[in-house]
Each structure stands twice: as C-alpha cells, then as structure tokens.
User: Fold this.
Amino acid sequence: MQFYGGGIIGVTGPAEQLDVLTEQLHVEYEIGRADDGSVDEVAHSANILVIDTKARLRASLLAPHDTDMVVKAITQLVGYYGT
Amino acid sequence: MVRRFIMILGWCFTIACQAQDTVTVNDSWIQAAPPTAKVFAAYMEIVNHGDKPLTLTGISVQGFERAEIHHSTIINNMARMNKVDTLTIAPGTTQPFKPGGYHIMLINPSHSLAPGDKLTLQLNFAGLQKSAVFMVKRAPSGQPQHHHHHHH
Assistant:
C-alpha cells in the first residue's frame, strides 16, 4: 500500500471476518462468477466512510468523488469534530 | 506466377492499409501499480474512421496470462466492474477507455511494470488487427485511481 501513500493501510482477511466489519458499516459487495468459475463481475459500495480515531463513524461521502470536494468535506469534519 | 504473387502482395498491402486507415489508437497508457500487482489497467482512445461499425473482440499481449475488456460504472452508489466480451464502435466515432469507464485489464503478469516501461498490445477487431504501444505512468492528477480487484 506504500505505493499509493505512506498513510494508507490495507485490510484483508477471510470473507467471514470481513463481513463482520462490512455489515456494521453497511458496506455491500458482490462477486459474480462465470460458468467456469472465473470472476466476471465485481461490485462494491462506492462511498468513502470517515471514521475518527476513536472508531466513531462520522460521515459517508457518496460517489462520485471530486478530489477538492473530498478534501473540503474532511477538513470541515476535522474542524467540527476534531481528530 | 510472378503477376499472381504481385497481385497477392498488393491485396495484402491493401488490407494492411485499410487497417491503418480505418482505426487509430490515441493516448494509450497503462496505470502504474505496485510491484506486487497482479492486474494492470490500460487506457486509450480508439477512433473508427471507417464507414462501418468496428467490433473489438479481444486483446493479445505478451508477458501476461490474459487481457480482458472491462467496464466500470458507479450507479446508485455501487461501483461495479464487469467483463465485456465484445465492444462495437460506431462509424466515425471515438471510443474512450478511461478510469471509471471502459478499460483493458492485463491479468497475471510474468514480470512487473514500472513507470516508463512500454508494452505493445494487439487489438483484435472483427476483420482486422491493430498494434499499439502503451506507456506505463502514474494516473494524471485529478483522475480516479483504478480499483484493483486482486481476486481476479
């Protein structure tokens, strides 16, 4: 994940464990498979969830994501809630 | 015999010229990804200069297990990416392949790609083929990053 930026952390694991997290956050995902078993479609929620340092969900930013708007929204959230 | 050979040669040259005249590929590039990436996304513009529809049926590339045409959409806040078997480009139109839309997925590389590398892709259309050189580079600022689905 360092390729994308020093502050980015990746999370992965068995689907059963990930589902515990995604269900709490109301994140949906689907994996479609062709007849031969290969993946031919992937879908997932497109919103960005903003969670503070005490694990509280503060905002859900819906797609599409304009970079300037995302920066503005997160700056406002930090200004309102603090870090 | 010689005349027949020249005729066949001329016919082949005509077919090659038709391929060159009918389709052009612009702004071809591959989005740089981490050295461990199992998939890379390729983008371009395909221009159909002809007077007939042009159908892209597949991509051939060396150094990867396979290449596929994919389409990304975001509808009702769901990001979706699905494989596309063929894509028809209407006469006189330009079909963009860009982040967030159609793109080429290069799957399971035999070696990684770094910014500055070049890769030749062969675009297989119904009735003709076209090769294009793609440069590996980071996504331009402000463009959405491709979501790499590592479970392909």
About this structure: Chain A has two domains: 1-45, 46-83. The CA atoms of residues 5 and 35 of chain A lie 38 Å apart. Strands of chain A lie at 29-33, 39-45, 48-51, 57-61. Residues 46-83 of chain A form one domain.
